[in-house]
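Good day; I would like, with your permission, to put a structural problem before you. What I wish to show you is a protein chain and, alongside it, a tokenised description of its three-dimensional fold. Please examine both parts with care and let me know of anything in them that strikes you as inconsistent. Thank you for your consideration; the sequence and its tokens are set out here:

***
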Amino acid sequence: MDVTPLIPKERQVIESYGPRGFRVSGVTHAGAVIVTPQAVHPWNAAAWPDITIDSFAPIFDAGVEILLIGSGRRMLMLAPTLRQALRSRGIVADVMDTGAACRTYAILLAEERRVAAALLPVV
């Protein structure tokens, strides 16, 4: 039985991740990225302390309701002010390690949810 989620071809699919970056829909991206179903953007947050509300700008006009934040090798806590700032824009943030964020993104994408993933490489 094939349990691979069925994802429409025009969607951005995270294929792999590692210490240098990500492979999304056949294209390699160095460093941190923000992935929406329609596009991949470089993420200007090189490390956890660099994250600001402005660093999430690529998702603000993308109709995203769920933001998965991949914090690298291990899960970290998102500052309450950032969580509230996202919430005020109608976006629910969920932080997890980057591997879990990539897997969860695939599941939610297959369910046609309005999801994005902001991903730090696994270092």
In short: The chain has three helices and eight strands.
